[in-house]
Amino acid sequence: MDVRAAIAVEAGKPLVIDTVQLEGPKAGEVLVEVKATGICHTDYFTLSGADPEGLFPAILGHEGAGVVVDVGPNVTSLKKGDHVIPLYTPECRQCEYCLSQKTNLCQAIRVTQGQGLMPDGSSRFSMGGKKVHHYMGTSTFANFTVVPEIALAKVREDAPFDKICYIGCGVTTGIGAVINTARVEPGANVVVFGLGGIGLNVIQGARLAGADMIIGVDINPGRKAIAEKFGMTHFVNPKEVEGDLVPYLVNLTKGGADYSFECIGNTTVMRQALECCHKGWGVSVIIGVAGAGQEISTRPFQLVTGRVWKGTAFGGARGRTDVPKIVDWYMDGKINIDDLITHTMPLQDINKGFDLMKSGSSIRGVVVY
Ligand code: NAD
Ligand code: AHE
Ligand code: ZN
């Protein structure tokens, strides 16, 4: 079938809006009509050429919500008409990783997903007879996409697509990093570096967890008001701090953060996030994705003296199990998504959505099909 898509033709170039061809679902696959998709910084990261796994041409997008329109053979858990959120971290419930109960990083289809292909090693997308790659197994920058059954969370039908699409990445990543990965406890002091689409959800997660001091760090002063609305108690603009940021934060927290979160993808800031943690127990969680070739460093003494460096993908969430619950939290008013979606646009304007994110004018832009 013909579908409308934003195609990443080449690294560093704007997406091209055009018609591409999509084959129907094969065994274990599902055809989804995408109703809305958020634009995450990771889409920009891959489009920029910084992603070692980046492939072109590809249909990017990994923060979607939509409706099942067809299922391939052997699909048992979904049917036509079901509302779904695609999962770039699937949940097969059978692989060694899923069965371990120690990680959310299901590996059932990770190899082909990283190659921009469906699990059988082929792509469903093409243009003029030439292969177009999938992205993160989701490719939500197209109004129809094919996704493996194990990479779809079935969600309630009364939830609005243009809001819950954000649960497909940013909301779950930010809140999950606090609850699943760091396991922040009531009364903890938390420092969040980067107050964008992810960091503001970390702030909201920290408030849910009952944190005491919630410090937000961002070079964009425009982030202060919205972060306060989500629970931030102190704002720090590194550009206004005299001297080093780390001792400033250690002083502010009276000894160091119990938990810190890096939500930027900047390896210098990752070091600051670790080193502002409390001696003996502070835990720093890396969420930001850094470009090819970049590495983190610190004095090993920082770890010898009890600080812990961790990372998280999709907030440690097991998508098919956890995502429907997070949709319920939204529908029950326990979490705020609406105020973070600052811009909506048709697919035609998706490049403007990227520009708004890059300039710091938007928190989350959402494409509504
Ligand atoms: P965003 O562009 O919405 O937000 C980034 C924020 O960081 C902005 O507010 C910006 O002003 C701020 N910032 C930039 N440089 C800074 C600096 N030096 N000091 C302080 N603040 C600074 O991006 P996002 O969508 O929130 O994504 C954030 C990061 O998280 C990206 O690297 C993205 O790829 C990554 N990410 C990771 C996961 C995961 O599962 N690990 C999931 C989603 C996104
Ligand atoms: N492909 C990159 C890494 C990109 C990355 O870390 N992706 C995160 C999700 S970011 C969502 O906005 C992730 O889930 N990682 C785990 C995984 O298996 O990809 C690289 O550096 O190669
Ligand atoms: Zn994302």
Automatic annotation (TrEMBL):
Q: Which cofactor does it need?
A: Zn(2+)
The record's annotation in PANTHER family points to: ALCOHOL DEHYDROGENASE, ALCOHOL DEHYDROGENASE CLASS-3
Listed Pfam families: ADH_N (PF08240), ADH_zinc_N (PF00107)
- Name it: S-(hydroxymethyl)glutathione dehydrogenase
Report the catalytic activity. Answer: S-(hydroxymethyl)glutathione + NAD(+) = S-formylglutathione + NADH + H(+); a primary alcohol + NAD(+) = an aldehyde + NADH + H(+); S-nitrosoglutathione + NADH + H(+) = S-(hydroxysulfenamide)glutathione + NAD(+); a secondary alcohol + NAD(+) = a ketone + NADH + H(+)
Q: Which family does it belong to?
A: Belongs to the zinc-containing alcohol dehydrogenase family. Class-III subfamily.
Biological process GO terms, please? Answer: formaldehyde catabolic process
SUPFAM superfamilies, A to Z? GroES-like, NAD(P)-binding Rossmann-fold domains
Taken from the UniProt entry, a GO cellular component term is: cytosol
Highest taxon in the source lineage? Bacteria
User: What EC number(s) does its UniProt record assign?
Assistant: 1.1.1.284
Enoyl reductase (ER) domain location is: 12-368
Lineage here is:
Bacteria, Pseudomonadati, Pseudomonadota, Alphaproteobacteria, Rhodospirillales
Q: Which UniProt keywords apply?
A: Metal-binding, NAD, Oxidoreductase, Zinc
Spell out the SMART domains in the cross-references: PKS_ER
The reply on keyword Chloroplast is: no
Q: What does this protein do?
A: Has high formaldehyde dehydrogenase activity in the presence of glutathione and catalyzes the oxidation of normal alcohols in a reaction that is not GSH-dependent. In addition, hemithiolacetals other than those formed from GSH, including omega-thiol fatty acids, also are substrates. Also acts as a S-nitroso-glutathione reductase by catalyzing the NADH-dependent reduction of S-nitrosoglutathione.
